[in-house]
Amino acid sequence: MMRFQHISHLFALGLVPVLVVLFIWLLYWRREKIKKLGDEQLIQNQLMGRIPGRATLKFVLYSLALTCIIIGWANLQKAGKTAKVQRRGIDVIVALDVSKSMLATDIQPDRLTRAKQLVARMMDKLQNDRVALIVFAGRAYLQVPLTVDYSAMKMMLQNVTPDMVPTQGTVIGEAVEMAMNSFSQKERKYKSLIIISDGEDHDENAIAKIKEAAETGVVVYTVGVGSPQGSSIYDPATKGVKMDENGNPVISKLNEEALQMMAAAGHGTYSQLRNTEDVADRIAGSIDDMEQKNLGADVYTDYNSYFQYFLLAGFVLLLIEWLIPNTNMKMKTKNA
């Protein structure tokens, strides 16, 4: 099994076709300039020391070198020895509020960014647990089904914005119901739901849904994002502060009481997001203390890296390109 350790680095290969287009354009531009001076073939022959095709050869070598270096940067790997590793963990679903009130800046840089930072930090602390991501505002959507691929979870997390859910509101109850449908229906434990929200304008059905989830063995943790004093909301449509119908700034406040009640109904704990590291430690520690199930699977324990060969090839090609002269030095000396 082959893989790239840093597959996102391969996007840099997009530079190669761009350089090819620019080089072809440069050749065309040069030819047009020569044509304006007179007979093209005659002028070409009068250019002292010029070697036909030399510039193209050097460009091809440079492009191949760049390609090799980028592939080496992405680090091609081949799976080595495998081992049967017994993994233990639980299923963890993160329900993230992406309503526009999460753009408030009472915590910097804004509520949604800090919430995403928290989720990413929790991913760093979880080890064998399966994770999933639900985003919600006026509707709830499953973005990442339960998986052990934390990198995919983080990649999807980077793209989360309020625009993903056009309907506004805070339907925590619908998010909880979606999480219940995503968990295994055969087990009455090994399940945890983390709700991250400012708790504003939540639906009245949320507490009832969380109690139902708790009865099926789901432990619910809530995280409050924002401050009780509140803050104005940035409106992307107007690129300014959001106003109400009377022309007054809309102030969004953290509803701690509602989130505390949800955590109590779900037999979990509530945390206000002040220090990201502390909250991530607290929740990850609580999840580690929960009873865990066997998730045994064959996993690759060792990968052989081949980046050094591609880097070496790239540097050798660059050296060859550098050693090849641009012009015929003997002809220059003779004419001199």
Number of domains: 2
CATH superfamily of the largest domain: von Willebrand factor, type A domain
Report the helical percentage.
40-55%
Radius of gyration: 29 Å
Poorly predicted regions are 331-336
**In one word, what is the shape?**
elongated
Strand order of the largest sheet: 7-6-5-8-9-14
Q: Could you name the CATH topology of the largest domain? A: Rossmann fold
Largest sheet: 6 strands, mixed
Sketch the topology as an H/E string, one letter per element: EHHHEEEEHEEHHEHEEEEEHEHEEEHH
Strand segment count: 17
- The appropriate CATH architecture of the largest domain is 3-Layer(aba) Sandwich
What CATH first level of the largest domain would be assigned? Answer: Alpha Beta
- Termini, distance in Å? 60 Å
Mean pLDDT across residues: 86
Structural class: alpha/beta
Q: How would you characterize this protein structure?
A:
This protein is of the alpha/beta class and 336 residues long. Helices cover 43% and strands 21% of the residues. The protein has eleven helices and 17 strands. The strands form six sheets. A six-stranded mixed sheet has the order 7-6-5-8-9-14, sandwiched between helices. A three-stranded antiparallel sheet has the order 1-2-17. The radius of gyration is 29 Å and the shape is elongated.
